[in-house]
Amino acid sequence: MTGIEQTRQRAILHPRTAAERFRLDHEPAPADLTPFLDGYWILHWDLTKPHRQQVLTHPVVHLTFTTGGQAHITGVVSDTFTREISGTGRALGLRFRPGGFRPFLTAPVSTLTDRVLDIEEIFGPAARAAADSIITEPCVPTALRLAATLLRDFRPTPDPAIDKAAGLVETISTDPAVLRVSQLAAIADMSVRQLQRLFAEYVGIRPKWVIRRARMQEAAARAATDPQDWSALAAELGYADQAHFTRDFTASIGTSPARYASSAGRR
Predict the structure, then answer these.
(1) What is the C-alpha separation between 231 and 240, in angstroms, rounded?
(2) 204/109 Cα distance (integer angstroms)
(3) In this structure, are residues 3 and 173 in contact, taking their beta carbons and an 8 Å threshold?
(4) Please, what is the Cα angle at 222 between 221 and 223, to 5 degrees?
(5) pLDDT tens figures, 139-177
(6) Burial environment of residue 250 by CB neighbours within 10 A (0 to 12, 13 to 18, 19 or more)
(7) CA triplet 54, 56, 58: central angle to 5 degrees?
(8) 131 vs 126: CA distance, rounded Å
(9) 50 CB contacts (<8 Å, ≥6 apart)?
(10) For residue 75, how many other CB atoms are within 10 A of its CB?
(11) pTM to 2 decimals?
(12) H or E segment at 45?
């Protein structure tokens, strides 16, 4: 399993309940857009009562087209993201690579952090008609092609710094030994200050946050599926003691590791 596949799975909290409430599919990005786009996700739901889903988000930007006419750009969400869905609907999302949204902006990606913007605010007034076509198109492959055309019309320019930023985020996701910003700076052959500037400009959030979020995703995934020795897991994730780990977990997810493990379906 690649780092990208792992992070896709680890974003969804309470995964067993989520699987009963909606279907989440993934499709790869067109080859010409892979310098910017990680891929597509398509959410389908048909509910008799509303469902609130928690997501432990990744350091990426999303462009989302949702039943009801919503077309939004969501920057990196530093807290836990919760969304309510109800009735019957579909959301089609474009997940950008870490750093991959930078060519579509005239400012650092950090200016989008913890913000949700209407599509017109970035792509201009003409994007509204394109968004409406994507939202109302019943055929998912056709809707994806329309979304790709919207990005191509913007004529983004590939940037080697995107690969640098995305590669470092991938390293954090796949190498549990990376626990400190100084370690990541050494891997990147950069000073800590240079690394911080790269993340602010391209990723949108500090490298320390990315490391902590990846470890919390790992902890939540393991808590939801397997019995854990919390003290041992805390040490494995780089914490000096279990109490510090428990505080971080609770702050990130809203409940203690033991309570999350129980509510996520493991007894």
Answers:
(1) 10
(2) 5
(3) yes
(4) 95
(5) 999 999 999 999 999 999 999 999 999 999 999 998 988
(6) middle
(7) 140
(8) 9
(9) 84, 85, 86
(10) 22
(11) 0.90
(12) strand 37-46
Average pLDDT over all residues of the chain: 91
pLDDT digits (tens, 9 = 90+) for 34-65: 999 999 999 999 999 999 888 888 999 999 99
Q: How far apart are CA 242 and CA 102, in angstroms?
A: 38
Distance from C-alpha of 212 to C-alpha of 216, rounded to nearest angstrom? 6
What are 205-240's pLDDT values in tens digits?
A: 999 999 999 999 988 888 888 778 899 989 888 888
Residue 19, amino acid: A
- Domains annotated on the chain, with CATH: 3-153 (no CATH), 160-263 (1.10.10.60)
Q: Exposed, middle or buried, 255 (CB in 10 Å: 0-12/13-18/19+)?
A: middle
